[in-house]
Amino acid sequence: MTTLPPLPTTPDATFAAYASSNLVNAALANTQHTLDVRNPATGQVLGTAPASTAEDTALAVDAAQAAQAAWAAVPARDRGKRVSAAARALAEHAELIAQVLARETGKAIRTECRGEVAVASDIMDFYGNLGSEIKGQTIPYNPRMLTMTTREPLGVVAAIVPWNVPLVLFALKVGPALVAGNTVVVKASEEAPFATFLMADILMRHLPAGVLNVINGTGAECGDALTRNPDIAKITFTGSEAVGETIYKIGASRIIPVSLELGGKSPMIICEDADLDKAVAGAISGMRFTRQGQSCTAASRIYVHESLRSAFMAQLEQALNALVIGNPLDESTDVGTIINARQMATIQRYIALAEGTEGATVKRYGTLPKSADLSPALFIQPTILMDLPDNHPCVMEEIFGPVAVVHSWTDYEEVIAAANSTHYGLAASVWTRSLSTALDSTARLNAGYVQVNQNLTIQPNVSYGGFGRSGLGKEASLEAMLEHITRSKTIVMNFD
Ligand code: NAD
């Protein structure tokens, strides 16, 4: 039974509803400390959110632990049905969730936020339908024995999400974990917790108490306490490389499984025979310019064949100039803001580094908004960097802003080597009409998600995850659920 008050119906009511309360055991759990959450487009404080201590965090883990055995005992298909029903309930509140998300992240409501809510709900529903697929195998070990594997839940899962696509990343972690019989404690991003809380609040009304719990706080206090809690059986984390490394060490010290979805510097190779219109559209969508480039998958290194360079740049510049930068809540806006001043300073530092590099070209596109209702601090124009040395920090490191590097190439072997030259390996794309080039390049590119002639975002039924320092493990798909959020038990029965 829930003791949750009625769901909020406006953005302001949402900020007030979770001003100092986590969502634990299907109830509001008051926290003593709070932190401010700002609207990056105006600079104004939207409200406070919980700043959970280690004690607040432990309460949520205890609730999840207490609920786990009973949830695991629910037949898998029934668990799935409940998750699907919960996902369907999101639809009724989709616009409110999107409005909250736009206010706290600075992402445009039309180009980003509504779509994110729809994708998150689709992912939850996709997993809800997979309850009956949590199967093991029978093994022909000995005809007089029954040898089989079963898939069991792991226990309490700690799911830590960042601010850039918090709802989709929530769904990719929570959907499979719940359907597989785990209970979950989600740590929201302190930069943008409210849409995550609202979504969880809607979902948990369709689930037994304690099965899904959501807490907020800083990484250093709440996140750290969560990952170190001895009742956590699995950590699934999406965020920065540095924090991923810390969390991996904590997981290692307790010998528990850890999934990491970290950064990227994804190459996009445009070959001489590419369809130019498609490639330009793919560069705009792949670089996630409408998310201000704040995407781990961003196609931030564009290698265009020399013969297409000037035509590609002309079309790209035209498309970038047409993007409307403005208030995230305006229906006409394509591009919103950067999340916070720290991220903005990082982006500007990289741009300044390129500007200070001899021979480099830095071009900015579109017009910054001038409205008195907006704070100009976190708006930035889409930016293209050209003529940089191959090993320049802007080429090798994740910027996490609307800044793409464009290089031209003539030698296929060299461009493959350049594409593989960073320590990341999240995604890559190749643009060609040749099947043999597609087959050869996709085999040789060092990335976990390689596409040809498209730059699609994550799809629920397609495994997604990086190589190298982009991370460990996969998300999305049935296989990701079976491999990363269940454990396999081998049973050998001998009645001979
Ligand atoms: P971040 O690592 O700073 O924070 C991510 C989450 O981890 C937040 O909830 C934060 O509070 C928490 N956290 C921070 N320190 C912690 C600690 N010591 N222990 C436990 N939790 C801690 O990342 P961010 O700035 O919020 O997000 C941007 C980063 O996320 C980028 O590097 C981006 O590439 C990455 N990202 C990766 C993917 C992917 O699927 N590979 C998707 C989105 C974002």
TrEMBL record:
Active site: 261
SUPFAM superfamilies per UniProt: ALDH-like
InterPro entries cross-referenced by the UniProt entry: Ald_DH/histidinol_DH, Ald_DH_C, Ald_DH_CS_CYS, Ald_DH_CS_GLU, Ald_DH_N, Aldehyde_DH_dom
Domain of life assignment: Bacteria
Pfam families: Aldedh (PF00171)
Keywords: Oxidoreductase
Aldehyde dehydrogenase domain ranges (all copies): 31-491
The keyword Signal appears for this protein: no
A GO molecular-function annotation: oxidoreductase activity, acting on the aldehyde or oxo group of donors, NAD or NADP as acceptor
PANTHER family: ALDEHYDE DEHYDROGENASE-RELATED (PTHR11699)
Family stated for the protein in its record: Belongs to the aldehyde dehydrogenase family.
Protein name, as recorded: Aldehyde dehydrogenase
Organism, scientific name: Donghicola eburneus
